[in-house]
Amino acid sequence: MANTSDLPCDADGTCMVCKKKAPDGETLTCKTCVTPWHSTCLSVPLKTLADAAHWECPDCSLTADQPGGATVKPSISGGDLVEKIRAIESDQSLTDREKAKRRQELLSGDAKSASPEGPNQEQKNSNGETNDGLAILGDKLNCSICMQLLDRPVSTPCGHNFCLKCFQKWVGQGKRTCAICREVIPSKMAREPRINSAIVIAIRNAKMSQSNVSGGVSRVNHFVHNKDRPDKAYTTERAKRSGKANACSGKIFVTVPLDHFGPITAEHDPERNVGVLVGETWEDRMECRQWGAHFTHVAGIAGQSEYGAQSVALSGGYEDDEDHGEWFLYTGSGGRDLSGNKRTNKKQSFDQKFDKSNEALRVSCKNGYPVRVVRSHKEKRSSYAPQEGVRYDGIYRIEKCWRKAGIQGFKVCRYLFVRCDNDPAPWTSENNGDRPRELPTVEELKHATDITERKKSPAWDFDEGQGRWIWKKPPPESRKAPDAYDEEGKITKRARRQKRNESVKERLLKDFSCLVCRKVMVLPLTTPCAHNFCKACLENSFAGQSFIKQRTCGGTRTLRAQKNVMKCPSCSNDVSDFLQNPQVNRELMNLIESLQSQMKEENMESEELDGANDEDAELCDETDDACIEVDMGEEIDGTNGKSNIGAENENCDASAEILKEEKDEKEGSKPLSNTNPQPPIEKKALGRCDAVSDDKEAGVARGEMPKRRNKRRGAGEEACSLAPNGGKKRRGNKT
DNA sequence: GGGCCCGCAGGG
DNA sequence: CCCTGCGGGCCC
To answer: What Gene Ontology cellular component terms go with this record (predicted)?
Structure first.
């Protein structure tokens, strides 16, 4: 709390407390208002010099909870800093904005770019690609009060962004209008400002790309599999059995690659935007596969021997398994005679080896990779198995693996799995996730051979500071990026292009996706509940609704006007007030448009370099959002896409008009590809995918889906000639 | 509940 | 292109 006796230095640098001129080494400058203070006269002295760069004066920290929260190390000492700030302040050639920018650069420790001749020079790497994410942001994500990079950003309904502290300080002074446009700040917003997480993530990513040597740990690639398939598993004509006995997989709803390690987070779940949650249950393995928890629909282990295993299923297929919930002993695959067209065989007839998927598990053990675990109702001996269906139980790590003689006498590969998930297990009443726990004593290890224990530090581990399990090392890079390699294993032109285009800018743009259409926002709006949408998308979500609805009262014919509640598409907050006069967040819009135009220029340059006759040219021939964003969801509605609350064509046109008008105001802004407002994606029932329309399903079930191999072995060979592609060359299997 | 059967999907 | 696989429907 501020002490009333705290006073700053006056214009001459004389401390108003001790009335002496404060020496340079004893002057402190507030990071918010840039006022100099005499450090020795402060009632709450600074703990370390390191706090100096982020010190906030008693006036500015009135609303701040605790001082000293800053952790960023300054590169400049206190006295030096003040001198530099003074130099900036007294530079007549600079505008106020430029001064603020330079102050910010100084205070953020970015002294190199604060050199007088070239502030904010973009740093280029050897490829000429801009790597300095924060520089790309420019001053577009600066707080309009302190002019520094937004810290805990909040966005007003009038479309302006402030640091939480600055905003709180502003309203704490009794001000109820926006510092920029003087628009009234809604009282709820003033009381409970919400952090705009899209901006947080964008800044975080920008910082990450700045500090990252190459690539980026948090990079999110979006791969779409089976996207043209129906929502449900389906049977081809060829399949002799109905239902899912011999079915093909339906659409994969999440955008992780098939060899994705670790949890499936919200950013990979365009369908529901929550990710795959612990405890989520599906009807069967096909459905489980569609949500990416465990991709292989028969095999218990999903993995690659040279690369690692991503997930396992506990389905009671091997009697040696031993389940204790938080830890379990898993048995490898193989050792069974599968001749005669069998898929499994209870009887073991030879030893298992550490090869194929057994080796994949061992690789995950050695590296400490996170392994997703699903339990099936078919595991009858475990009390932790679900009653029905297949359930996602979270992340485990393989702490040890070995071989031992199994129940049937032949050797089996064995794995000790220990849970390490940030969410509580489905069976526990705890409401926190796992903490590192001691390994259980495994009796059978006494008789084990080929024991493998992890030697290096695990890739997935508990971070004491954050109090959660995180990637301590970058997750293995996916080898399953579509079309990344040609037949000879050389990287393809398309992949090269994709790599090149995966610039910092592109990643930043992804952070500015509309929560409805999931594309980069056009005319971004931030609701008071801090969710971001395209203007058209949000308005279109309530097309046909009026702000006031009339209700008859108590059986009489009196009509009473009542406010119509309009729930934010992302949460249950009423956004009807906001919608009466929604203001575009122009700072965001400017940033998005500048990123897009820069990317377009870069793309054009690389087109020229590539030559005109590139067969993939249509992929990225514009600053096409489809290139940036996953284009899922569009087909969900198909032709009868106007699913939302009776949205009518006129309404769509109307909002498109508004869009256009607003757009035309801005000179030279290029039309964006997604000016068509998208209807909101229909929410799917959790873990279910039965929302597909009958005709659609029927259409696909006719069997013209993907071309399939026509291979077969063992019995039933005759039926082969009836297959749709029976005329194609096919292996002459012996009968 | 056990056994048989076989399309599919992924690994290599 | 072949091999493998802790599925799932159905018959007994």
So the answer is: nucleus
8 A C-beta contact, residue A630 and residue A253:
no
The reply to whether A18 Cβ lies less than 7 angstroms from strand B is no
What pLDDT is recorded for position A284? Answer: 97
DSSP string covering A261-308, please? -S---GGG-TTTSS-PPTT-EESSHHHHHHTTS---SS-SEEEETTTE
**B1 C1' – A452 CA distance, angstroms?**
38
Written as six digits, the tokens of A284 are 């069967």
Q: In terms of DSSP bridges, do strands A322-323 and A281-282 run parallel, antiparallel, or are they unpaired? A: unpaired
Return positions of chain C under 7 A from a protein CB.
1-10
> Which residue gives the smallest C-alpha to C1' distance to B7?
A246
| Interatomic CA distance for residues A253 and A64, integer angstroms | 43
Q: How far is the CA of A286 from the C1' of B7 (A)?
A: 13
Any strand C atom closer than 7 Å to A344 CB: yes
DSSP β-bridge partners for residue A461 = A470
Q: Give, in Å, how far the C1' of B8 lies from the CA of A137.
A: 48
Predicted TM-score (pTM) above 0.90: no
Contact A620, A497 (CB under 8 A): yes
In tens, the pLDDT along A43-53 reads 776 665 556 66
Name the DSSP letter for residue A169: H
Higher-confidence residue of A294 and A40: namely A294
Please say whether the beta carbons of A42 and A6 come within 8 A.
Answer: yes
Return the amino acid letter for A5: S
Q: Residue A325 gets which letter from DSSP?
A: S
pLDDT in tens, A240-287: 888 999 999 999 999 999 999 999 999 999 999 999 999 999 999 999
Residue A618 predicted with pLDDT over 80 = no
Please give the pLDDT value at position A165: 83
Packed helices A504-511 and A586-610: angle between N→C axes, nearest 10 degrees: 140
